[in-house]
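2 proteins. here.
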Amino acid sequence: MKTKILSMCLTIAMATALVGCGQNASKDSAPAAATSESSSDSADAGGESGVTGEKRTLSLFAGSIPENTPTGVGLAAMADYINENSNGTLEAQTFYDTALGDATSMVQGLQQGTVDIGVAGTAYFSGLVPEIEVFQLPFLFSDLESARAATAGPVAEEINGMFEGVGIVGLSFWENGFRELTNNVRPVKTPADMDGIKMRTLPADVDAANVTWFTLQTHWYTHIDAPSHQFPEGKTLNDFPLEYLFRKSTILDVSYLEANQPVTAEMLQEALGDTKPEKILLVKTCWEDKTEWHSHDYWDESPYITEDGAEWLASLKPEIVGFDFAQDYDIRKLRFGVPESQCYLTTHRKILKNDIMMIEYMSNMKSVHKKVVDFVGLPTALENANGAQIRCVAIEDTEE
């Protein structure tokens, strides 16, 4: 059975040495390895250990790592040790800087028996043992001593043991320096400095997650509007107390409405009835259940609040008004490239100007059955923003 040793570099500057058993190796290609009982004696006795047998050649491959690096020097030292202590039965040859292929092909070679000893970053082994990616997490260790302790402890032993099932057995971790973020655009001191910069990452999901950026306008999807969204001198989200988002809320149920129907003040008054209006008013149409939210019909056929409807909502002096549909008729024009400045967004003009925040495009209102519920709003924390994505939660009292 052919024996292979493998080293894996960590994000934090470590590497793991593994020994694996190639499933495709033949007896002719197998090196003359000592038994587990005699291996320690061999290390102690060196050339006098009595190791004999046919001479074998071992390939020690550093993947894409150059020779003039700590890992390259370490691999050379390993080769020297093998050659000096195998009593002429083993000849270790070193290869660097993709001489036998890239790091990915090196991992495959370890499994197939074409590479005996390999060194590569942990990311290249994540396809075999995903748990190894834990060492790719940023800020996992506060200092080098903590990293050394972790990679020599029970967690590392457990992860190394997982490789036995794929023909590789873990030995130890090597150091390879802390991972740095470099680019040729600008210094990166904060996450915002990375905006617009393309980054090459290792082939591990956790690395991609670490540097994946997404751009999201603050008025897309379920979001909350501040008056400054429409009025430059208006209040931002920071100007409102946080407790505004933790209130009783009144549900104004007009879910009987069909496509393109106006929502008038009279309809809203009828929905309120004799119920006392709370500081949060939520207009419920269940529109998302009548059409697909990602379809054109969601926008083009939506019910809409009339001007007198918007004025009536504002007259109740709520702190927040929410909608589960595209509540302004002119919102549908935005899809055709009409600038927002040329659209008359009724609720935005009538409600926001009264220092009342609005929540747009809520969903799952069909699950809310009570007329008055406890509302919890969890917005994205953006400083002095005119809007932000928000998670809305309704809490209903249930009867036993």
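next one coming up
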Amino acid sequence: MSKIFWSFLFTIVSSVKLLSADTTFIKPVDPKLKVLKQQVINDLLSASVSDAGVINLAEKMKDDGSWGDIDYTDKTRGGWTVADHLTRLNNMVIIYKRPGSKWENDRKLEEKIISGLNFWLKNDFICPNWWYPEIGVPKVMGANYAVDRR
């Protein structure tokens, strides 16, 4: 399986609270970590994202979770256009989770986000430039995961 999948899986597994040896006690989370997590989430949600622009992109998403204007066969080493897919999903997650947004917890938007994520994972896109699979993609996927888990 791809490095992206394993990075994503590691992020999920590492966020699960560990049980003690006797499995009757869940270790408490350090309050400072809770504050730090909330500060990171607040920062991510404060991104300047146009609701109208994001909804326009969501409406243009195909049934399979892709967009017709993204060249998913792109193999350029810099400015990899396939990464636009994740940027769009990231923006969708922001307006989906932003408190007070008209689209907060909107079921149809959630379905679009899941469809787009499934398309990404199913196709296992890899850029020939090491930066995207090692840094760029995990950075965006981690942000999406952090915001969605709030």
